[in-house]
Design goal:
This protein is about 30% helix and about 25% strand. The chain has 13 helices and 16 strands.
Length: about 400
């Protein structure tokens, strides 16, 4: 698994900011890399098959054997990092405010600002906290020991480079990042509410899901369910599913270094967030659920609540919300376990309680093949564009 510094140190790497707030920043990293050959190691071969590769021309007009690698670097930070990390945006705030869709007016890359961001990030040491496979890894970033004194320098644009003693931050690295992952991280241009019918799902959404799966961008999930990655986060390993500590639980004690005995009654349990993932990859989302899956769902809930109670001391039966997202973050069926105090991801237009799902398919095994499902999508996202085109075609007929 790559360390962020491995990418930040690449020759010619470019950095642009996708989103920056007082608490978070998501950066887009781009660099060129030679195609992997049969003699390369397995990790390199896997990487090159999961990206969209493009050939560039050399000075003689001949195609060079290089590919464009895009990565996402997500940082949890403090407000004083915002100015420098947001100095090279992909989209102007004016276009975001206007909701410019479906074509985005991408800003030109600013090499000076990019170098400023790179210089900032290279002054940190990144320590691996956890990894989920081919694409995802999680790190803590702390200032290098030789940068402990607070200094304040300004570049020609007056941007302050004072970074020392500003503390640590958490980092999520996704490399290589797929177009779907980049689209999810792009600044929002607003949302639209979708009423997905049976016909819309079969005609538009299901083919879209298949394209995501066929792209290979979900290969990291196999590493998790097969116990090759995130073993330090594993709570339950059942023959049909796994239940892990979700990486969204940022306040959880570091799983790699904290004994599990210290997890019990830990103060962070108010933020509790765990994830159950089925091992059957043919179940992609709520639309695939049938009456035959009732025992699976009931067992996942039972085993998950029991593990949460025994591991964290939380009375799970009346303190834990168990739900499914539609649309989900990734198309390999999974369910969420969160403490009632933690409302992340439980918006009414996206969340479906597993207890309700079980009742629905107990009444009608094909319930989710018939039901109109309502959810919101980002304007200009790939799926929203496909659905908008589908609706436009229907209205034009």
């Amino acid at each position: 698994m790559k360390n962020p510094l491995d990418i930040l140190g690449k020759e010619g790497v470019k950095v642009q900011s996708l989103t920056v707030s007082d608490q978070h920043a998501t950066l887009l990293l781009t660099h060129q890399q030679p195609f992997a050959t049969n003699s390369d190691n397995d990790d390199q071969a896997t990487t090159t098959t999961t990206i969209t590769s493009t050939c560039t021309d050399n000075n003689d007009g001949q195609a060079a054997n290089t590919s464009t690698i895009t990565s996402l670097l997500k940082l949890t930070l403090q407000p004083f990092h915002k100015e420098i990390l947001g100095s090279n945006p992909v989209i102007s705030q004016e276009d975001i405010d206007k909701g410019q869709i479906p074509e985005r007016n991408l800003l030109d890359h600013n090499p000076i600002a990019s170098e400023e961001i790179l210089s900032f990030l290279k002054k940190y040491t990144f320590e691996l906290k956890s990894e989920s496979g081919a694409e995802y890894s999680y790190h803590s970033a702390s200032p290098n020991s030789n940068d402990t004194d607070t200094t304040k320098q300004e570049n020609s644009d007056g941007i302050s480079n004072a970074i020392s003693k500003f503390g640590c931050f958490d980092v999520e690295l996704i490399t290589p990042a797929s177009p779907y992952q980049i689209s999810r991280a792009m600044p929002t241009l607003g949302h639209v509410l979708i009423n997905e019918t049976h016909d819309m799902y079969n005609t538009v959404v299901q083919p879209y899901i298949k394209s995501i799966i066929d792209s290979g961008s979900l290969s990291w999930i196999n590493n998790v369910v097969e116990g090759k990655k995130e073993v330090e986060r594993l709570l339950v390993n059942h023959e049909e599913f796994v239940i892990n500590v979700d990486t969204k639980w940022r306040t959880h004690p570091p799983p790699l270094t904290t004994p599990r005995s210290e997890w019990y009654n830990h103060p962070s349990t108010a933020d509790l967030y765990c994830l159950g993932i089925v091992k059957d990859s043919s179940i992609t989302c709520i639309r695939d659920l049938r009456g035959q899956h009732i025992p699976l769902l009931k067992t996942m809930v039972k085993e998950g609540l029991a593990a949460i109670k025994s591991t964290y001391g939380v009375q799970a039966e009346n303190q834990i919300r168990v739900f499914v997202h539609y649309q989900p973050q990734f198309y390999h069926f999974h369910i969420h376990f969160t403490r009632l105090e933690n409302e992340v991801g439980c918006s009414v237009e996206r969340g479906h309680l597993v207890s309700d799902i079980i009742q629905n398919i107990e009444m009608d095994s094909n319930y989710y093949t018939k039901r109109i499902l309502t959810y919101k999508l980002k304007k200009g996202s790939p799926l929203e564009n496909l659905i908008a085109a589908h609706i436009s075609n229907d209205e034009g007929e």
